[in-house]
Design brief:
The protein is an alpha/beta fold. Helix content is 30%, strand content 24%. It has a 7-stranded parallel beta sheet with strand order 13-14-12-15-18-11-19, sandwiched between helices. It has a 6-stranded parallel beta sheet with strand order 20-30-29-21-28-27, with helices on both faces. The longest helix has 16 residues, at 202-217. The chain binds adenosine-5'-diphosphate (ADP) and zinc ion. Zinc ion (ZN) binds at residues 450, 452-453, 455, 468, 470-471, 473.
């Protein structure tokens, strides 16, 4: 890979070059440079493939192993800046490291095919300033969206304002909106590094100076910004962003979830004066196309997005920030399996630029890298200003159980009442969507389960549906038991957030409740509305799943109640303890972020568990040390390397046979251990039967080479799929 990055190919007419296509093929294909054309590495080209014409990227010189008369000519060059060596190197690295086909990885970098074409003039809408006599709430929302003066596409406008296209058309018709032609709607809105500079505290200043000097050095270094919740990590890395923007280079910021970007964008805007370019799956194709081009032509100084933003073709990237670096959403587990945090570090290395990983609860991997001196740790040990870290208490549910039919203990009840009566806000966290995680028949004991997965169906009472959270299967709420047919015999077992909301509405009828989960909040706009309702004190109790745990800053929020702190601890997952500490620290970190002191109550049936104790005692480092010792003793990551091999098929026998064949051919070298095959904990998923093998190797081994050799030595029919998950997070 190093050679391909360094080598400079200039292919003249008649020469053969290899072109990588965004298709999951095993390798790049050879093409001839036709008369009158000259190409260089990284150029986007159109080439024939069978009867089709497809776009691809010139990857290097031809392989030379194709007969000259079989080689077809390149059709056309696309007018785009060539893909830089740094991104091509990254694609090769991801393909190699995660055992994916390079074409499948390239597809993530070329995910908007229309972005390759020259722009057609777009119809954009702007506000004329004139107002109708009657401004309906819908129309008011449209004007509010356009208030920043930026022209917008009809589709974006109606989505952002949550109105139908007819509302927009009506406003045009009545002369309140104008249509203008444009090719880009983000021009002329460059962030201003000096728009609003905060006064940093001593610790913040020290960390910011270090970050800014690493920006100045223009070389690869990973900074682990390790600061308690509310310490001002965002403000601090904004300084590094500011320093990078001043040098004219671009910045990439990764956030774990779209919902989180609402508040982030506002903060960016108050610091730098404009909204940056965004990138995530919810954007319209037209907007993504524009973002892709803006990044590629260096018109976008900063792009913020979810993990897929990692593969954007930046023209002159100068800094990468990964916020909440420990977050499991950075791990992609379909298509190409990869960890965006780790790929971000590799991109920084290939581009020779600094990387910032920010977290209040760094992953064990990053923590180890910092302790070993591979990463530079910058600590922010205290909250900003007068704010103190919240007081965390465990409620022992064995001693103070809730009354029958309820899920909240008297202690949490009282604390909630006092908080709401005092005019402050409460956040109740339960990581379970829906009404109840399990529905069973009181008469015959039958449990409603998904027909496609080894999983219970979850009741969603608000929408009157039963849902599978693994495959998306939906059916009507059942009235009678599907097994014994008895009517009214089905009972809901255990609480989900909807059931909590029902309980609260009963015991605190005056409190204003809102539920925030991926079911109730489906767009950024929606999340923004909830956030502004919280900020304007229109909500007393916010109930939610992990969606509410991250990043948010609500000054009046002083009490966080964790309904089931034990939930993540069962199940024997390698990272169960680590993840619980991260998640619960994160949600606890929402309490008392300004002058009002915060309090966290953890409901638990195992208050002596090291995770609960670490949270109560605020002893994160003690926990990390103990967890590392345990991982080392058990020979587990980050001390060894793991890979999972998942075999699936619609035919159970076949999956089992392929798994057995693989197990028989497993490498038997010294320190390599292969466990399994065993039926996966979710033995059936989306109708496919699944078996797992787990490979453990010491860090000295070339795990990828071993896996390639092994998987290459066994063959199986297309009715079985074998996937490799390097550095797995999920063991389901
Ligand atoms: P973290 O990301 O570490 O949880 P934030 O960056 O969200 O912390 O900061 C917490 C709050 O404190 C935010 O409202 C932020 O604007 C504010 N804040 C932090 N540092 C400063 C500062 N130096 N000046 C003004 N406000 C600050
Ligand atoms: Zn299912």
């Amino acid at each position: 890979m190093a050679e391909s990055v360094a080598s400079l190919l200039r292919g003249g007419p008649g020469e053969t070059v290899s072109v990588l296509l965004p298709i999951p093929l095993a390798r790049a294909y050879d093409y001839r440079v036709p008369a009158g054309m000259s190409v260089e590495e990284g150029q986007y080209v159109r080439v024939p493939l069978g009867a089709r014409v497809v776009s691809g990227v010139v990857w290097g010189s031809g392989s030379g192993d194709v007969a000259a008369n079989k080689i077809r000519p390149i059709g056309a060059l696309l007018k785009l800046p060539p893909m830089k060596a740094e991104l091509r190197g990254l694609i090769d690295w991801v393909a190699h490291y995660y055992l994916a086909s390079p074409g499948a990885v390239l597809r993530m970098a070329m995910s908007v095919p229309t972005a390759l074409e020259p722009p057609k003039p777009l119809k954009l809408y702007i506000d004329t300033g004139s107002r109708p006599q009657r401004v309906t709430p819908q129309r008011a929302r449209v004007f509010a969206v356009l208030a920043d003066g930026l022209p917008r596409l009809a589709a974006d406008l109606s989505r952002m304002a949550s109105v139908g296209p007819d509302v927009v058309r009506g406003l045009v018709h009545a002369g309140h909106l104008n249509i203008v032609a444009g090719t880009s709607f983000s021009e002329g809105s460059n962030p201003d590094p000096n728009h609003s500079i905060p006064t940093l505290s001593g610790f913040q200043r020290a960390a910011a100076n270090e970050l800014c000097s690493s920006v100045g050095a223009e070389r690869f270094v990973v900074n682990l910004l390790d600061g308690v919740t509310g310490s001002g990590k965002t403000e601090v890395y904004f300084e590094a962003i500011s320093a990078t923007l001043k040098t004219g280079r671009q910045v990439l910021v990764l956030l774990p979830e779209i919902a989180l970007s609402a508040q982030w964008l506002c903060r960016f805007e108050s610091r730098f004066g404009v909204r940056p370019t965004t990138w995530h799956s919810e954007l319209s194709t037209a907007t993504r196309r524009e973002s892709w081009r803006a990044v590629s032509f260096a018109r976008a100084p900063l792009a913020v997005g979810t993990r897929s933003a990692l593969f954007l073709p930046f023209a002159k990237l100068g800094l990468i920030v990964v916020d909440e670096e420990h977050d499991a959403s950075y791990k992609q587990e379909d298509g190409v399996f990869y960890n965006a945090r780790d790929v971000a570090v590799m991109r920084g290395r290939l581009a020779a630029i600094p990387v910032i990983l920010a977290s209040a609860t760094p992953s064990l991997e990053s923590h180890c890298n910092a302790s070993a001196g591979r990463y530079r740790r910058l600590s922010l040990p205290t909250r900003h200003g007068q704010a103190k870290l919240p007081d965390v208490e465990a409620i022992d549910m064995r001693r103070q159980p809730p009354v029958r039919g309820r899920w909240l203990s008297p202690a949490l009840d009282t604390a909630m009442r006092e908080t709401v009566e005092g005019g402050e806000q409460v956040m109740l966290f339960l990581n379970r969507r829906g009404y109840a995680p399990l529905t069973l028949c009181r008469s015959c004991g039958f449990r409603l389960h998904c027909p496609n997965c080894t999983a219970w169906l979850v009741e969603h009472r608000l929408t009157r549906k039963m849902r599978c959270h693994h495959c998306g299967y939906v059916e009507k709420l059942a009235e009678s038991c599907p097994e014994c047919g008895l009517e009214g015999s089905l009972v809901a077992c255990g609480p989900g957030v909807e059931r909590l909301a029902e309980e609260l509405a009963r015991v605190m009828p005056k409190a204003r409740l809102k539920v925030m989960t991926s079911d109730t909040v489906s767009s950024i706009r929606h999340a923004e509305m909830l956030v502004s309702d919280m900020l304007a004190n229109r909500i007393d109790v916010l109930i939610g799943t992990q969606m509410i745990t991250k990043g948010y800053h609500f000054p009046r929020l002083t009490l966080v109640g964790v309904v089931d702190a034990d939930l993540g601890l069962s199940g024997g997952d390698l990272r169960a303890s680590e993840r619980s500490v991260q998640l619960l620290s994160q949600v606890s970190g929402r309490a008392g972020r300004e002058e009002r002191a915060g309090r966290v109550l953890l409901q638990s049936y195992m208050t002596e568990h090291p995770v609960i104790r670490a949270l109560v005692e605020g002893d994160r480092d003690g926990f990390l040390a103990a967890e590392l010792a345990a991982r080392s003793a058990a020979r587990m990551p980050p001390f060894v390397r793991l890979a999972a091999v998942i075999i699936s098929s619609r035919i159970e026998r076949l999956a089992a046979d392929v798994a057995a064949d693989l197990a028989r051919a497993a490498p038997r070298e010294g320190e390599i251990e292969v466990f399994g095959p065993a039926p996966a904990p979710i033995a059936q998923l989306r109708g496919r039967f699944r078996f797992r093998l787990l490979v453990k190797a010491s860090r000295r081994h070339n795990l990828q080479a071993i896996l390639r050799g092994w998987l290459g030595s066994v063959s199986w029919t297309r009715a079985a799929i074998v996937r490799v998950d390097i550095d797995p997070y999920s063991f389901m």
